[in-house]
Amino acid sequence: MNDCTIPECGKLPDLRQYNVVVGVKQLRKALLNGRARYVYLAKNADPAITLPIGQLCEEHGVNVCWCASMTELGKACGIDVGASAAAVLEEIRF
Hints:
alpha+beta, 4-stranded mixed β-sheet, 4 strands
């Protein structure tokens, strides 16, 4: 896991324009189903939450971006509260 942003994205983007899940339970499901494209974790979140998600990302080959704070990640996701974890989902094509 890197302590930097994802090269394709640069700085933390406005995630509201993407299909995003917020929260550990939904994120874990997305990872296990192979739908998570990028995962964002907050540096100031509880490591008991973020470290297992980070390890799961490594196991599934998903890039992780560490954000400065839960507040910053929540704002990027368009929610009024902080978020410890979020994922951009792959587009489903029919």
